[in-house]
Amino acid sequence: MDRIVPVPSRNLMPERDLYKAPVLECINLGISFGGLKAVEDFNIALGPTEISGLIGPNGAGKTTVFNLLTKVYQPTTGTILLNGKDTHAMDTAAVSRAGIARTFQNIRLFGSLTVEENITVALNRQFSYSTLSGILRTPKFRREEKAAHERALELLSIFGMESLADVKAGSLPYGAQRRLEITRALATEPKVLLLDEPAAGMNPSETAELMENIRCIRDRFQIAVLLIEHDMNLVMNICEVIGVLNFGRIIAKGTPAQIQANPAVIEAYLGKGKEGKDENDSKN
Fold first, then answer.
1. Of 127, 167, 233, 250, which alpha carbon lies 20 to 30 A from 44's?
2. For residue 82, which of 65, 70, 67 has the smallest C-alpha distance?
3. How many CB atoms lie under 10 A from the CB of residue 147?
4. In this structure, are residues 66 and 24 in contact, taking their beta carbons and an 8 Å threshold?
5. pLDDT of residue 143
6. Poorest-confidence range of 9-23, 52-66, 163-177, 224-238?
7. Model confidence at 17, in pLDDT bands (50, 70, 90)?
8. Which residues have CB under 8 Å from 82's CB, separation 6+?
9. 10 Å Cβ neighbour count for 135?
């Protein structure tokens, strides 16, 4: 794992990405709902091949950050730069085309479609045949249909799911549905992959396999990965930089070792004074 070094704008990134422009940068990002500041002064800079984590207690604002990055919500304040371009005028579809893909806390697959069809739906912008050529099944349509089939199987091979291509997505086990959702996100050819609790519902062996798959995805596609996760074993073993969110604000940022030793992080998760109370109780 590369050494983590400080960069401008209060951020950290792997040394291998130090002299490359951040693929994703958030500057003083925030959103308010009525008078409530759900996210405030959120700053990150992701290196082009960085695996980074965003953790925090339930309700801290983590998924809200993902919704801001993908323009499900428009920020109230701040700037999001994707490959140096301001995404202010973009909607969700435009952000996807520009290079941000995501998965969701609650799996969102087309359950009645096959595994392969879930992938080819995400490949549609990479092919240019018209509706008429599809109806007439012209040579161009058949060539592109064959290319889409081959690309879908190639992507499914990342998780060893080629044999499930014709299975209905809704009938897959939970862990397989999680893997399919990640594969579908990769089909959009992202520069940044946002994973919202990718290990949710997985057993320990599936989680260990997922960690290796995320590293392989980063290396194979040369993309940045930002994940939200409550499984601390996964976070601490795969993330190079971790940000801790509490009440909508970043309270700590650093390497896994730095985060594990940070008093503010311990307080956010365990509650102020808990350690002291336990010590006093043990003396009585």
1. 233
2. 70
3. 13
4. no
5. 77
6. 9-23
7. confident
8. 23, 24, 95, 98, 99, 100, 191, 192
9. 9
Of 69, 125, 78, nearest to 101 by C-alpha is 69
Residue 2 · residue 219 · CB < 8 Å: no
Instruction: Compute the mean pLDDT over every residue in the chain, rounded to the nearest whole number.
Output: 87
- Tokens 């919202």 found at: 196
User: CB-based contacts of 215: which residues, under 8 Å, 6+ apart?
Assistant: 51, 238
Q: Which residue has the tokens 């959120």?
A: 42
Name the pLDDT band for 236 (thresholds 50, 70, 90).
Answer: very high
